[in-house]
Design a protein that fits this description.
- The longest helix has 16 residues, at 2-17.
- This protein has one domain: 3-Layer(aba) Sandwich (Rossmann fold), CATH 3.40.50.
- The protein is built from twelve helices and 16 strands.
- Helix content is 35%, strand content 26%.
- Strand 2 (82-87), helix 4 and strand 3 (111-117) form a beta-alpha-beta unit.
- Helix 7 (223-234) crosses helix 9.
- It has helices at residues 2-17, 22-31, 60-75, 93-104, 121-130, 197-206, 223-234, 249-252, 289-298, 309-314, 319-327, 331-338; strands at residues 20-21, 82-87, 111-117, 138-141, 150-157, 166-171, 174-182, 188-194, 217-220, 235-247, 263-266, 269-271, 282-284, 287-288, 302-308, 347-354.
- The mean pLDDT is 95.
- The protein is α/β, with parallel strands linked by helices.
- The strands form three sheets. Strands 2, 3, 4, 5, 10, 14, 15 and 16 form an eight-stranded mixed beta sheet that branches.
- The structure holds S-adenosylmethionine.
- S-adenosylmethionine (SAM) is lined by residues 38, 45, 53, 55, 87-90, 94, 117-120, 123, 144, 157-159, 162.
């Protein structure tokens, strides 16, 4: 069974190398070729899978996002040779909704290509099947590093939260990291090892208060920095739209959030145990938007706006659009996107630009 094979691979690594840092463990659990959660052939996202995203709420998200994309294209001065890029399109619903909307609004001819970057080869096949009527407009890559620099807009919906994270714990005012090892029964077990320098530097910068809180435990997402650099190499001119759940640093590392934000999803139920259902459950953590903004500026982006998903989406709506959502029976879905008890406040939107 797949789960056992992945478990076996991780255990072999630990037996060979000794305890492995949590981010390496999480990287294998999510991204080990063929057997990692996001690399599996049978990965399903949505009702039949483990979690939903905004893209699964009917066409509401696609309609609103298309409105945002067209507005930003206008703001750029209606450029030619312009492309839309989506990172991690999963089931391809959002791409389908956007392309359909562009077609309906006679906007398709303004875009050169809709670029899809997806690491899971089976998901690429699903996406190709779903988008076959847009052949000619679409193009696929399996890594952001393969794509030549573009002018356009890049959509990054719920990608940063899926990166492997380091986990730290404070003991006696010092930072330790969680490493994964094996106990005498050959089960996964956590052990604390003094934190690596990059982890300490991150905490000193974004969470200095936690050193005073004995037992404080949370995550450090350094892949987010590397990925932001890759985004800056990808985009020559245009915008990046980042949608994700997360907080600014002070809220992320608030004293009461002593257990961090790492969560696992299996068939739409939540648990906090990353050592079960290996490769069968999703593992995710919230995004530290203060870090993201700082790293984005360092690699040449301008911060255009940072707001809640609710405010971002509502600002795109006029009466005509609201009437249309009502007519197409999308009002309830729209409410889930914007209300605080839905995704309205938990999810934030960071817009970056480069000129
Ligand atoms: C949490 S899902 C996001 C789903 C999707 N964006 C949506 O709106 O439904 C993460 C998706 O990103 C893909 N992915 C993860 N890391 C990636 C990376 N570095 N480059 C491209 N795709 C990635 C996964 O295979 C999966 O399709």
């Amino acid at each position: 069974m797949k789960e056992n094979l992945l478990r076996k691979l991780i255990k072999e690594k630990i037996k060979k190398e000794g305890p492995i840092p949590f981010d390496e463990f999480m990287n294998m659990v999510l991204y080990e070729p063929e057997v990692g959660y996001y690399m599996r052939k049978d990965l399903k996202i949505g009702r039949e899978g483990d979690f939903f995203t905004a893209s699964h709420l009917g066409k509401a998200f696609g309609i609103l996002l298309s409105e945002a994309l067209i507005k930003l294209w206008n703001k750029l001065g209606c450029p030619k040779n312009f492309s839309i890029t989506e990172i991690g399109p999963a089931m391809g619903y959002l791409a389908e909704d956007i392309l359909e909307e562009f077609f309906m609004r006679s906007f398709s001819s303004q875009i050169d290509k809709y670029v899809l970057i997806e690491i899971n080869p089976t998901l690429i096949e699903h996406q190709k099947e779903r988008l076959k009527k847009y052949q000619g407009k679409t193009i696929w890559y399996s890594s952001i590093k393969e794509v030549k620099p573009i002018n356009g807009i890049v959509i990054v919906n719920e990608i940063y939260d899926a990166f492997p994270v380091r986990i730290f714990e404070i003991r006696n005012h010092k930072a330790f990291e969680i490493y994964v090892t094996l106990n005498e029964k050959d089960d996964f077990m956590e052990t604390l090892i003094p934190a690596r320098q990059e982890t300490i530097a991150y905490l000193e910068e974004f969470a200095p208060q936690v050193f005073q809180i004995e037992g404080y435990r949370s995550e450090v997402n350094l892949m987010a920095k590397e990925f932001t650099l890759q985004l800056s190499k990808l985009l020559q001119k245009g915008y990046i739209l980042i949608f994700d759940y997360g907080f600014e640093a002070d809220e992320y590392f608030a004293p009461f959030r002593k257990r961090g934000t790492l969560m696992c999803y299996y068939k739409h139920t939540l648990n906090e145990n990353p050592y079960i259902k290996i490769g069968q459950q999703d593992m995710t953590s919230h995004v530290n938007f203060s870090a993201l903004k700082k790293w984005a500026k360092e690699v040449g982006f301008k911060i255009e706006s940072f707001t809640s998903q609710s405010k971002f989406l509502v600002s795109l709506c006029d009466e005509t659009l609201l009437e249309r959502l009502h007519k197409e029976r999308l009002t309830e879905k729209f409410k889930r996107l914007i209300l605080p008890q839905g995704m309205g406040e938990s999810h934030k939107v960071l817009v970056l630009s480069k000129s």
